[in-house]
Amino acid sequence: MPKSALRHVMAASFATAGALALSLTGTPAQAATPLDYAALGDSYSAGSGVLPVDLSSPLCLRSTANYPHVLASRTGARLTDVTCGAAQTKDFTQAQYPTVAPQVNALDAEIDLVTLTIGGNDNGTFVNAVTACAAAGVLSGGRGSPCKDANGTSFDDRIDASTYPALKAALGSVRAKAPGARVAVLGYPWITPATADPSCFAKLPVATGDVPYLRGIQAHLNAVVRRAAEETGATYVDFSRASDGHDACKPVGTRWIEPLLFGNSVVPVHPNALGERRMAEQTMSVLGLG
Which long-range contacts (CB under 8 A, 24 or more apart) does 100-105 make? Predict the structure, then answer.
């Protein structure tokens, strides 16, 4: 067969094979476009106390090993991280500090994914509850429920009256700025065990009867966060099972949250590096990413 004829036969064969491949597989595979990802939220999002520190915004005590960075590195997403320690829901729409813009300013119609934790700092819920119960625990020698006796339902009442509507408003502002984004709202991993651990009193000096009281306040806050998320079309990422057994009373390597005293972080009662990784992994699992 002449070479020219042979070339025509081979070309026809390749064309036929290519057409057959397309008919079997559809359109040729293309590289996936990276997600445009914005991370918002408070110190649990920022990874405050986890090294290394993000020096681009020193006031925010943000870590480059926080769960947004872990999630972005594992999915190849393009991350814009405006998480900030001590953030409240109001800081989504107003400047937290003169040099820290409203967090929703990081959003636009091109954003594909938003993650956040928020609500724990509203009304000083976490810091006031933990410090009040720790002080009462020390004074009582760890006996009884002095914090519950003194505060009753006051923390829960403020969560319902103030935190819940503020959460809905904050999530509404996120949706308005990024209408096409998938929004994931993370709950807070457990700080205390379900029941008192006497060996933990030196690290978390809360009276025996106040350990479940504190856990109940956190459970209530998480339930309100879930409710606000679902009512605004966001996905809630639940840690009630995943973080059980990883509270601040557990040893290094097991705990996700550092204790109030004698921990390994300059920011106590916050997630450590392991906790931030696990928060990222649970979020990816819920969202079907990675």
Answer: 100/57, 100/59, 100/60, 103/40, 103/41, 104/40, 104/173, 104/174, 104/177
What phi and psi, each to the nearest 5 degrees, are found at residue 45?
Answer: -80, -40
pLDDT digits (tens, 9 = 90+) for 210-248: 999 999 999 999 999 999 999 999 999 999 999 999 999
Q: Would you please indicate which residues are annotated as catalytic (active-site) residues?
A: 43, 270
- Classify each residue of 7-42 as buried b or exposed e, where b means 16 or more C-beta atoms within 10 Å of its C-beta: eeeeeeeeeeeeeeeeeeeeeeeeeeeebbbbbbbb
CATH 3.20.20.370 fits 34-287, yes or no: no
What are the pLDDT digits (tens) for 101-126? 999 999 999 999 999 999 999 999 99
